[in-house]
Amino acid sequence: MKYLQEFRDPELARNILSEIRAATTRPWAIMEVCGGQTHSIIRHGIDQLLPENIELIHGPGCPVCVTPLDMIDKALAIAAETNVIFCSFGDMLRVPGSEKDLFRVKSEGGDVRTVYSPLDALKIARENPEKEVVFFGIGFETTAPANAMAVFQAKQQNITNFSMLVSHVLVPPAIAAIMDSPTNRVQGFLAAGHVCSVMGYAQYPPLVEKYRVPIVVTGFEPVDVLEGIRRVVVQLENGRAEIENGYKRVVNFDGNIPAQTMLAEVFKTTDSAWRGIGIIPNSGWRLNEKYRAFDAEAKFEVSGIKTVESPLCRSGEVLQGMIKPHECECFGKNCTPRKPLGATMVSSEGACAAYYNYGRLAQIAQRSV
Predict the structure, then answer these.
(1) How many domains are there within the chain?
(2) Are the beta carbons of 294 and 162 closer than 8 angstroms?
(3) What is the mean pLDDT of residues 166-194?
(4) Each residue of 93-116: pLDDT tens digit?
(5) Do residues 54 and 193 both lie within one domain?
(6) Contact present, 140 and 63 (Cβ < 8 Å)
(7) pLDDT tier at 177 (50, 70, 90 boundaries)?
(8) So what's the pLDDT on residue 369?
(9) Comparing C-alpha atoms, which of 13, 21, 65, 66 is closest to residue 40?
């Protein structure tokens, strides 16, 4: 509880806000990469407390949100197989595919189970040798080590009825893609602390040098976020571009070396599709040839599934920071958490869900009166 209390301290937050106001002389646009940071910002009203000339742009850091639509449809096709136990974290069950979601597959008779770890799915495979058990392995670098460990153990223990549908994406290539975009407005980044807890931040100095953009590794509590913003603003005002670690209680430069070793053992880097964004080179992981037998996409021959996004959903623009969620014409109307058009409305880290759940549209309307 110590850190929870300390990093939600109202007086400390007010002091940092005062420092931000004193340091800010020009307009700046800062992107928080992580969806967890977006929810903290909206939940605590941090964006409303900042000086008017500081804009926070919500980035593509929600792994559920950027999982491609065709990957969701592949999951649905596998889960509907009669001999399959399909395992997933709970936040994927309501993510819409082209026509349905995993909850609908479950209601139609599919054996879809919520687990809390990929090792839970591996245990289910051991206990049900007559069934094919598939785990939906999605996420950024944070969740990848546990997924890699599950596949590694399956091979070591010769559990042949276990496989994984992999959709892992990587943060640094996404930052590069954002900076290379002709519509880019981002001048500084708050890097995702939990990703850096695994990978460290050795990958960020080249991005800082190439794009001359400040990057501050930041946590998720209000004081963490405010301190990250303060550091970025100070750099921008002083004409500096550096990598700073504002989350030292969790993150170091090199990261978790054993976790990285396991990742290198099981995965290989690949070009990856991001939902609503498109292909980003070298931005994903897939199982390497050594572990090809555990690739559910190949085992169930679903690679040919291709889909088209709803023309009504503007989640891609939200994920790229081009619009705020409430600027989508469907927000709160055609698109709600009960009937979403895209994953950004149902994910626990989605920007659209944050705006909807914390009543941001009503707050904006009230301020305009």
Answers:
(1) 2
(2) yes
(3) 95
(4) 988 898 899 999 999 999 999 999
(5) yes
(6) yes
(7) very high
(8) 39
(9) 13
Locate 57 and state its tokens.
């742009």
Q: Is the pLDDT reported for residue 25 higher than 90?
A: yes
**d(Cα 305, Cα 326) in Å, to the nearest integer?**
32
Reference 34, options 190, 227, 222, 216; nearest CA is 190
Asked if the structure places residue 32 within a domain, the reply is yes
Q: Could you give the angle at the alpha carbon of 94 between the alpha carbons of 79 and 197, nearest 5°?
A: 95
If you search the block for the tokens 């023309």, which residue do you land on? 311
**Domain boundary residue among 245, 271, 286?**
245
60 and 178 belong to one structural domain: yes
Rounded Cα distance between 101 and 52, Å, is 40
| In-domain check, residue 265 | no
In a domain, 235, yes or no: yes
**Domain-located, residue 183:** yes
The residue from 245, 273, 298 where one domain ends is 245
Q: Which residue has the tokens 């910002």?
A: 41
Structure tokens at 1: 């509880």
Structural domain of residue 350, as residue ranges? 325-368
DSSP annotation of 110: -
> 316 vs 159, which has greater pLDDT?
159
User: What is the DSSP pairing of strand 215-218 with strand 243-245?
Assistant: parallel
Say if CB 187 and CB 162 are below 8 A apart. Answer: no
Q: Same domain, yes or no, for 207 and 345?
A: no
Mean pLDDT for the chain overall: 92
Q: Count of H helices and E strands in the chain?
A: 18, 11
The string of pLDDT tens digits covering residues 59-92 is: 988 888 899 899 999 999 999 999 999 999 998 9
Using DSSP bridges, classify how beta strands 267-274 and 278-287 pair: parallel, antiparallel or unpaired.
antiparallel
Give one DSSP letter per residue of 120-178, joined into a string: HHHHHHHH-TTSEEEEEEEESTTTHHHHHHHHHHHHHTT-TTEEEEEEEE-HHHHHHHH
Q: What is the CATH number of the domain that holds 203?
A: 3.40.50.11750
